[in-house]
Amino acid sequence: MNALILGALRHRPLVIALALLVSGWGIYTTLGMPIDVFPDLTAPTVTVMTEVPGMAPREVESLVTYPLETALNGASGVRRVRSASAVGLSVVWVEFDWGFPRYTARQVVSERVDMVAGELPAQADTPVMAPASSIMGEIQFLGLVSETADPINLRGAAETVVRRRLLAVPGVSQVSVLGGGDKQYQVVLDPERLRLSNLGVGDVAAALEAANRNVSAGFSLESSTEYVVQGFGRVESLTDLEEVVVAHRDGAPLRVVDLGEVRLGQGPVRGLGAVNGKRAVILGVQKQPEANTLELQKRLDVVYQDLVRDLPEGMTLNSDLFRQSDFIASAVRNVEHALRDGALLVVLVMVLFLANVRASVITLAAIPLSILLAVLGLRAFGATINTMTLGGIAIAVGALVDDAVIDVENVVRRLRENGARPVAERRPVLAVVYGATLEIRNSITYATFIIMLVFVPLFFLSGVEG
Fold this sequence. Notes:
There is one protein chain. The protein is of the alpha+beta class. 50% of the residues lie in helices and 22% in strands. The chain has helices at 2-10, 12-31, 57-72, 102-116, 151-167, 191-197, 201-211, 238-242, 293-310, 324-354, 357-364, 366-380, 387-400, 402-420, 429-455, and strands spanning 45-51, 78-86, 89-96, 128-129, 138-146, 172-178, 183-189, 215-222, 225-231, 245-249, 252-255, 260-266, 274-275, 278-287, 315-323. Helix 2 (12-31) packs across helix 12 (366-380) and helix 10 runs antiparallel to helix 11 (357-364). It is elongated and about 130 Å long.
């Protein structure tokens, strides 16, 4: 420690240059740091969803959810498995240990799900993993409103125009749509016609499924050229559905239109959306865990300007329903004000206490330098600038200038005493500074270590607290 102090006094230009270099590096790092309200409080979690059309919750639980839970329990890094079973849907949440790599967790879940997929009921769809998102990942709500468009067209524009465009933005993990009408091509069968034709609903469903597909028929070789042969059978209109042949009776085809009515309709409503009392489609935008909320919001705002031009006539996009970036800016601004007020109070107390402008300036240099060094430390550990880290810095302002105040005050006092001596007895200034620093260095060092020891237990907390 003595050699460090003596070296700093002998190489003052080098010390100043290093301080300026660290300050510049710290400022550059601060400007590029992710900013959020809180640190990411989400343990690595993977959500597995399985649709089982028409199955009751009890059967979903026993035939789908339980086998998935059994396969996922005990996997590498898994600490808890939770589930929920509803009509035709199984949802399993797999939580991993804190610090477990997120994408490794998804790989572990994928391997375990593949092991049990063959044991699920035949009517169960393939289990899928939900996009990776954070517990605080819902960064914005949008409202698609129209005075003239019907609910079906409004939801169609939300899903095909707005949602797909937003999913293409880097950093967006998921866009959920609520409200409007779910567009359906509906076949309303006449029971009496089915009875007279000796057909069932399953026969019509099978015919519709078989007819709505393109079929490859290999290729045709002509001279030295190969021509791909393909049959196009995809349904493109209501008329195509009406003309699907279900069966033959007395040599004549029996079409869907002969058994009922084909129409364009709206599916069962499972939720409504409104903006300021008007029917609307609400879109929730979720970010990826590592995405910077403020930077992502800037990219989204640019996309919204393009979307306004691409929307069908009469539709408007309201992007101000909820913006997490506004909350972040407000929360961080409040903590910044507390940090600023605390620093100003420290300045005022030091000027009054030291009664020396030069000494006050030297002491105050510890505040920005220490804060910038703290930011570099946060960056090295992968932390973000948020209300917790800024609050910690605000609390620490008083502690981090304490050493400088005590040291500089003792140096000023010794320099005054040295200046009051006869010229012949005065010691060199650097020698006085060195001696004054050594007098209190041990006390300051011990006091600083005591403060550090008080906070050390916090770093051994686990879970959300840690």
